[in-house]
Every structure is written in C-alpha cells, then in structure tokens.
Amino acid sequence: MKVKYSLTLIHRHDYTASRRFTTTQRFTSSQTILGKTKFIPVTELMDVGCGFLNDSARNVIIELQLNNAVTYFEKTVDVSAASRTRRNASGVYFDTTTFQLADVRWYIRFYVNKLNSGGLPAVYLYMSGKNRPVVVELQFTLCLAGDLTEILTYSFGDSAKFEGFGKTLRQALVNTERLSEVTVSAEIQSVVVYKLVSVRVPRLTVARPYPRTTRLNYLPSSAATTTTTTTTLGFNSSTGSDSFQVNW
Length: 248
Hints:
mainly beta; single chain; 2% helix; Apoptosis, Tumor Necrosis Factor Receptor Associated Protein 2, Chain A; 44% strand; 3 domains; 1 helix
C-alpha cells in the first residue's frame, strides 16, 4: 500500500507547538513498519515541562492522518500446461491468492485467451465470498502481462450484477500455448464501503380504523395535547415522551 500520511505529537497546552512530519511511503507484506527515526529527542519527550506528556508522565497524544492511500497487489501465476485445469464457458482461467482490503478478501481472475472475446486476454477483480451484507465501491486498474486497463469503477457485494468486474484487453498475448507464468496486478485508488443494516422501527396502532384522508401530525412533547376531536399516540423515542396526533 502506498499512502501519504502525517503523524502529529500533540502539545497539550499549545497546538502550534506540536511536532509533525508528513511523508509518502509504501508498505508491503515484508515491510510493515515505516516512519521517521529522528522525530523528537527522548529527553524532550519525557520532560513533563515540555508539554507533551500528561500530568502523570505516562501518556502522550499522537494524531494520525491518512491521505491518498493506494493499495497495490501483484502476483506471478503459473500458467503452464499442467496448471490449466480450471475451465468455464469462457475458457481456461486462473485465480490468484486472496488479499485483504476494507475488511474483505479479494482475488484476481484472468484468461490468457478468452474464448468469447476473440481469443483476447481478460482480467477481472472479484470479491471473495458471497452474500455479504456490504457494498464496496472501488476505483481501480488491472494489469495483465504489462497491459493496463483504464480506471474502472464498480460496486461489489450485495445486489451487484456481477460477482467480478474487469476488462477484455486489446492486445493478444504472444505464444500463449508456451507461456509458463504471467504477472497480474491490481491497483485500488478509491474505496467506499456501505454497510447494510436492518433497523426495527416502532409500530403505531390506533383505537379505531381511520380513513386514508386522515392526517398524522408529529407533535413535540411540549406541544402534545389531547382534545375530544383528537387521539394522541405514544411513540417509543429516545426520550419516551414524544407523540403523534391523529385528526379525525
């Protein structure tokens, strides 16, 4: 993942005296810890009078801000004749191992020569696992053997039309029958997550049926009144005192 971020050591009495550094770095599975080695002298940090430690001299406040995070996944896949064992209506396909993004696992599926696309290669990004109560909208590019797609936008997950989304590439791969391995990658530039939840709402009942023309007026608790021509209905709100008025 390539990300621009800033770390701020908060001064407890004067925010303008806080210490901050901003950088752009690339985190990988083999290099998960990055930052700045010479940020503040330890003696200054540990001196309560300098304003960074709290009164108990045990805690500091650090603010983290992330910007322009780009997730990059790359995999070299064996496509030799012995590995061409999975097939569907579009031809022989290959799946990468999964990677995690936005608490969801993903993988890339590709065809070195897709049958229903004139034998051209095709590459797709898939969300791993079905029936997830979440929608993840991504902006991303895919690359197969050096051939890069344009920026693609798709909403994966619940109610999505397709399980995966991608592109048939313009250039055919050379000597596909002799290929032994292919490098495929995905670069995710934007992530928007929608969680789908079910909310239970209170059920309103009245003492007797009322015609469709009946008007329901919401009354704050301070204005709720009961007369001979109205019926006041209780509503289970956070205060427990709001009401609805039904005019007959």
